[in-house]
Amino acid sequence: MDSVISTRILNRRKKDPNEFIFTGEKQTGELDIQLFRYSREKIEEATGLKPQQVQIPANDNFKYWLNVYGIHDTSSIALICKNLGVDSLTIQDILDVNQRPKFQEFDNYNFFTIRVDTPLKQ
Questions:
Q1: Where is pLDDT greater, at 10 or 74?
Q2: C-beta neighbour count of 6 within 10 angstroms
Q3: Distance linking the first and last C-alpha atoms of the chain
Q4: DSSP tag of 50
Q5: Cβ(109)–Cβ(54) under 8 Å?
Q6: Model-level pTM?
Q7: Distance (Å, rounded) from C-alpha 67 to C-alpha 11?
Q8: 108: region left, alpha or beta (phi > 0 left; psi from -120 to 50 alpha)
Q9: What is the pLDDT of residues 78-107, one digit of tens each?
Q10: What is the 3-state secondary structure (H, E, C) of 85-108?
Q11: Exposed e or buried b for every residue in 82-111, given b needs 16+ CB within 10 A?
């Protein structure tokens, strides 16, 4: 007998563009946030960040890479994204676990998503 996999399908025709929906299974663990700051000569990693600590200074000569594990916390994801100037449609893409791997270029950031199943810290 084949097993049935149930997934939440995201309805993109919602009325409020600032209502963010996580399509995965409910989690209870905390977010695990990594922020990499790098250039040709140097790389730095900040770990254990809280959502309000994720900041990227304007006009420095570094590139940044942000990893967030535990995207079930929609309010924290929205806070991080709004502080970084991420578009609301991109926020919904982040929260949609059924999203295929994807890369998009925007004026102020690039968005790359791929699913990584990692156990959360309890």
A1: 74
A2: 5
A3: 35
A4: -
A5: no
A6: 0.77
A7: 26
A8: alpha
A9: 999 999 999 999 999 999 988 889 999 999
A10: CCCHHHHHHHHCCCCCCEEEECCC
A11: eeeebbeeebbbbbbbeeeeeeeeeeebee
pLDDT (tens digit per residue) in 1-49: 555 555 556 555 656 767 888 888 887 778 899 999 999 999 999 999 9
Residues in contact with 107: Cβ distance below 8 Å, sequence separation at least 6, in sequence order: none
Strand partners, 66: 35
Instruction: State the residue for tokens 């900041």.
Output: 55
In one-letter notation, the amino acid at residue 28 is T
CA distance 40 to 30: 32
Q: Which tokens belong to 114?
A: 């791929």
Amino acid identity, residue 5? I
Question: Is 31 in contact with 51 (CB distance < 8 Å)?
Answer: yes
Mean pLDDT of the chain: 84
Q: Is the dihedral of CA 97, 55, 84, 78 positive or negative?
A: positive
Please give the distance of CA 98 from its chain centroid, rounded to a whole number: 14
Q: Scanning the structure block, which residue is given the tokens 């609301």?
A: 88
Only one residue has tokens 């995201």, namely: 10
